[in-house]
TrEMBL record:
Keywords: Aminopeptidase, Hydrolase, Metal-binding, Metalloprotease, Protease, Zinc. Residues 232-443 form the Peptidase M1 membrane alanine aminopeptidase domain. One of its GO terms (biological process) is proteolysis. Residues 451-553 form the Peptidase M1 alanyl aminopeptidase Ig-like fold domain. It comes from Ancylobacter pratisalsi. The gene is pepN. CDD domains: M1_APN. GO terms for molecular function: alanyl aminopeptidase activity; metallopeptidase activity; zinc ion binding. This is Aminopeptidase N. The lineage of its organism: Bacteria, Pseudomonadati, Pseudomonadota, Alphaproteobacteria, Hyphomicrobiales. PANTHER family: PUROMYCIN-SENSITIVE AMINOPEPTIDASE.
Amino acid sequence: MRDADPKPVRLTDYRPPDWLVDTVDLDVRLHPSVTTVIARLGMRPNPLGRHGSPIVLDGDELELKSITLNGTPLGGSAYAATPSSLTILAPPQAAVTLQIETVLDPSANTKLMGLYRSSGTYCTQCEAEGFRRITYFPDRPDVLAVYTTRIEAERDEAPVLLGNGNPVERGDVEGTTRHYAVWHDPWPKPCYLFALVGGRLDGISEPFVTATGKPVELGIYVEPGKADRASYAMDALKRSMRWDEEAFGCEYDLDVFNIVAVADFNMGAMENKGLNVFNDKYVLASPETATDTDYANIEAIIAHEYFHNWTGNRITCRDWFQLCLKEGLTVFRDQEFSSDQRSRPVKRIGDVRLLKSHQFAEDAGPLAHPVRPSTYREINNFYTATVYEKGAEVVRMLKTLLGEEGFRSGMDLYFDRHDGQAATVEDFLTCFSETNSVDLSQFALWYAQSGTPQVEVSGHWDADARSYRLDIRQTLPPTPGQPDKHAMLFPLALGLVGPDGKDMPLNPDDGTNTAGTVLLVSKPEQSFLFRDVPERPVPSINRGFSAPVKLNANLGTEDLTFLARHDSDPFNRFEAGQTLALHHLVSASGQSREGIRIDDPTALVEAMDASLNDASLDPAFVAQVLSVPSEGEVGREIGTDVDPDAIHAARRTLRHTLGEALRPTLERVYVQHAPTGTYSPDAISAGRRSLRNASLDLLACTGGEADIARALTHFETADNMTDRFFALSVLAHNAPDVREAALTAFHERFKDDPLVVDKWLALQAQIAEPGALDRVRELTRHPAFSMGNPNRVRALIGNFATANQTQFHRLDGAGHTFVADAVLELDSRNPQVAARLLGAFKSWRSLEPVRRASAERNLKRVADKRDLSPDVADIVARSLG
Ligand code: PHE
Ligand code: ZN
């Protein structure tokens, strides 16, 4: 067991390792309950470390069998071993070979960290600190070694044996029923990138030739019988590889690249060198079982993990505080890839929606932390929206500030200078300041200061002087551990839209700090002056969401409606409608604060109608326009004493109103976008489906008989999962009378497919009615459900806690109690999944008093439990802190 209240790790305490590992030779003899690992480590003292120090290795639940140093067995007084560490007390201060034999039980590993079994397949997960569950090792990312791995298993049980790097040898173990394979990875890597897989798997393979003509064999391995569902992932992989060559000059560097899909996985996927391991949800797809969103996620995550080969693997992180160095940058890269493969504006809208719903919520609550935290108790809890999504926004701002070429020159230098190293955020930024000759010290605050900047803008047109002035004020609210903040530097993309709806030329006054149409904001208060502005413009601010800030542009209904119809920037055109809807929802939920009041939704209706009738617009974009801000976003706008029921009611009423008011247009759009030909997951076809389905949904929100009948027909006649599942959710949310029959029919049809059953579980968890909690409780006893599988837990309990605000935050507290109970039950089995689920309480302080008290009671109940995992202990302490 690990200490439940470990000392916090601090960035400022970083010291280089005392011992380095140059080579790792592993011999892993797989067995369901007694797997033997023999590790031969070629080590030497680090010239940068403390001379004369012992060799201290990390472990976690390990059992030591034997140990030799330079070939000689070590006596009991020469070392100290516990399940969580191994110390060689007085090693020679020279290169040594340490050989360690340990045993472990993969079948008993329910944490899914280290070596475990998923549906009988042996697989590993080592990030962040899982390698120490396989063998004793200096488990830190700045120890880079060359690995050779021999994997041995029963031939029947594990005919497929995969490792990092290139295959070098395979054969039978003579006189036994066992066989082996040897893999060698020539690229030095930290141990968190180690992986092996052994199992009975089906696979598909395809050749790829890199830009410089090197052949690579690509493989995707899945559970037997599912190989036909891996072809989209394979296609996405090939497109990712080509894109990285073209966009960043990054070429693949091994003879093989393998992906394995497993059913039990804590996260989305893992970028192990040459052997990515995936949650099968992000590999398997067929038109009958996967939605358009699933296809888009598969494409993005395949790309993400592949892109890590350079940003993460060839250049890794010095320590875990630098996590955003690989994650923020790689998310930025996968976003760019998807933007190039699909519609850039629609991708941007989706990314910003995700940022607001997850990251802004995190930044506004007790779990707020900087993109690069300065202290942690449990690193697993820092794989967050802040590190990933806000981290990507920071890289995006860097690109906006430096321009395409300036950004690329910095990236080129980064790849060149730090290849083979474990780097820091400072190393990264230095590359950009050098190639662009700029000082990025103020910009670097984005990595250090937590919280979402609030940006207040007001515009003043001077008719006589024919000038326009923008006054900008930025504030950064206090966050845990950071009461006072400094002003940030950020790019604010701007347009001044004239009365004809066209952008006016921008003539910044001398001394106004702009780069083209981008304002460089760096002071707490700053004004920008523009000359030759003959008419009153409407300002379009933060175009493309150029900075991840909470903007208040002080625009009235008329100006917002105007932007919603005319803004040449698609993001801000979308955003103007969202702001209209948000203001309306805040006042309609009866919780309006001063200044914001749009009681009458007519302007919103008209703006939506205009978009629906504008044939020049991309259907996928119009579908986004039709979808009003989430309950969570409305709650954050209200800020304090939030009543989820009032917000839900306001949102429901608004959607009903929209459905009625837009009826003729929606009915026409629904018919116009009927499917033509067979299903294809491409962005254009998906966009047509999304608009048609958004129309179906708004119409059904009215509860009209014909509208429900339309949804039922849509459900029954669908030839793909996108349409079938969308219609099912429309029915589940709007048609209590047909709901049960439709859910039963769906389950009957797909009951043998766990990933589809997850959709069925998730949907039921989201029904915003008082019966939802009983239904979810009942479903935890359904044979398809298991507390041992993270996907099942997230589908049912996770969705209840994060996507059903009224029922999770029930006034009687039963929703909170249920989720807290689930966290406690899960904690002994899988702490990472438990801790993530507990994160659903993160906005508890903004609730009205009764719900706030119930959340607090339940958090305290969790905190009081004995023997909490470090993961849950950390989240609960920070949540209450
Ligand atoms: N590094 C993985 C990714 O972002 C995420 C991950 C973290 C997976 C920890 C497993 C464990 O792609
Ligand atoms: Zn990643």
